[in-house]
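Box 3.1. Reading complex inputs
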Amino acid sequence: MTALGEFALWIALPIAFWGMVMGFVGGYHKRGELVLSGERSVHVVFILLVLASLGIINAFLTDQFQYWYVAGYSNRDLDTYFKISGLWAGQRGSLVFWAVLVAFFASITVFQNRNRNREFMPYVVGVLQGILGFFLVVLLFAKVNPFEQLGFVPADGQGLNPQLQNYWMTIHPPVLYLGFTAFTIPFAFAMAALLSGRLDSRWIVLTRRWTLLSWFFLTNGVIFGMRWAYEELGWGGYWFWDPVENASLLPWLTATAFLHSVMIQENRGMLKVWNMSLVLLTFLLTIFATFLTRSGLIESVHTFAQNTSIAFIFLVFMGSLFVAAVILIVYRLPALRSENQIESFVSREAAFLLNNLVLLGAAFAILWGTMFPLVSEAFTGQSIAVGPPFFNRVNLPIGLVLLALTGIGPVIAWRRATGRNLTRNFAMPLGVGAAVSIAFISLGVRDGYVLATFGLSAFVLAIVAVEFWKGTQARARIEGEGYATAFIHLVGRNRRRWGGYIVHVGIVLIFTAFAGRAFEVEVRKALNPGETVSVASPFGHVYTLIYEGISSSREQNFDRWVALMTVERNGSPVGSMSTERRFYRVNRQMVTEVGIRSTPMEDLYVILADVEDFDGIVANDPDAQRIVVQVMVNPLVPWIWYGGVIITIGSLIALWPAAEVVRRRRVLAVEEESPEALAGAASA
Amino acid sequence: MKNGRFYVGLVGVALVVTYLVWTGISDSMVYYLTPAELLAKVEQDRSFHGVGVKVSGKVVSGSYHKGDEDFVHLFQVHDIEHPDVAFPVVYRNVLPDTFTDDTEVVLEGRYGEDGVFHAKTLLTKCGSRYEAAPADLAGQGTAE
């Protein structure tokens, strides 16, 4: 099985290149049979990459430690989940995983478009197979072959890093990678539009769902990563501005910009060059993120590999793609001319453009800060670093502008907003926002950023609420429906719009949660059984934790010590919680598992900072129970996860094909059977 | 309205972001040094004691011990290229799980007049733990 996997990689390489050549040549010479061959090659490469992935998973499940990759990331006693997730635990497997996901999406795309959009498909196939070919070359020739053998069979593997032995390991990386790889499809269509010369909004309409799907996975991937980092001690909380975290945020920022700017092109025929540039930039950033995470080029607490040998190859690949795309864009400049001009600074176009500029500004600042140690060393010979203070300082004002635009963008008029449009839409929400800020000032909050965040959040929520209310009310009146039915029909009629509004609500919750960080409370104390530690929540109540004792046990892959606490809120018991230390025997490493007790407004977060006498506890010595804990109250943190759930609901509503869209698509498919459509469909 | 005026807006946003980045960097940048570089700098210029720096080095094997109070950790850090260049470090916080007597660490803090590095943050660099070197495995190998 595993040997077959390696064989599959070697077969996939020439087939990918065959498909690339067939796509480009078939498209250029309008030869349908060549295009068809290229399209079939996509499915073949997908199947081969599935075989390679199964080969790796099989090697993990059957403990084949003669493979370097398996020996480095697994051991006999490792949980089955983590053996399966071995596919993306390290650089080598990650590359295969990345490629198989791209091939999966490529295969779906080819299938969906077997009778449609024939003018794009040859180039789409060419671009996708070219990208897959590159990854296969790297896998097979850049000393990162996951099937490389050691030449001997170790008795046991080195084990997976204990910090990665967390259930998020099975969720966060795949979701993030789905986001990265799904964006390959919009990129391929954009390049196909440039190559084929069909430069109207068609490619954008076709890839709208793909972009949204990619964004949906990216958002969830980033939020899952935040949750994981929040639970893992030593990763600096849910966001630390660590290079790897930043790398996943960069494509998210540009993809968000793209998601908004395509609406201007669809509605007003503007920003065509801008959209091409954004799609290129986002795609390059997804590759950059994959590569930065797995190359060890920049120092990070999350860098799980030290192999910098592929850095150069990746830089050359990204550089060539960049140059080729820019040449194409310049060549097609006449056809990319804007059909309209921006008429006023006070218009939806302007608001969207500002949103784009600000998102790009944030991306630029974050990229700059992340690369600064490398850049400064290259130019001055002296490495200079910037940390979280830099990123917070730059991104706080940027974030506030974005937050405001979350409310302004959806309701401001296209072309030129009149005074009446502005008063009608913004007067009341501005009042609500101001009232909320004033309320917090009267409660004694003096931090300007916190007040602005709370005020703007209320402003945006008021705008969205009013929009939903107006829409529902109008529909209920016109159609004579009940309010609940009217609401459901309203959302169903224009899923993208209302789904988008719901996503904005989720974003607002997350911003509010960030501001909650200003109110964190922290207490540290050494405890013997029966002793208590108290911590006052910013919401006014007091938590008291009573230390009940610590016990030890031996698990499959680790030894554990669990400290148990009873929790009281204002003196009345509300439950218990535990925090623990684990010693992973194979890795010879200690891991702290924090205890989290979540309520809608705040988390009680307990760290077992120190254990006085591990062996004494194992020996059941009653005098060896002293521990040291750090207890924190983290206000509003749960809102990040609630915001994530709301974003998911909103994205799914926007992604779900509306009944009209399905009907329209059938009509479109018939229209597409025009003589100018490529021969591919005919020859099929 | 002509697009020309719009480019003014565009340049405006770009300037604001550049300003934020510029002031952000000059206010929060820290030198990133090796222990040897840090000691050389301090020798050159006594005022460097007060400057916040980031230092990467290796914990001296066996040098770690707990302070008298909880949350106080004392150890020595040496230069990776010049193992004889070392200085004592005091760190008052929860140690990361990956901290051992043998790890590479990145410290942020100040090198005090007292000759002790007062670390505000401590990160561990643990490449070797995340990815095994085949050489480590050779010892436990069995013939194929």
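In summary: The longest strand of chain B covers residues 117-125.
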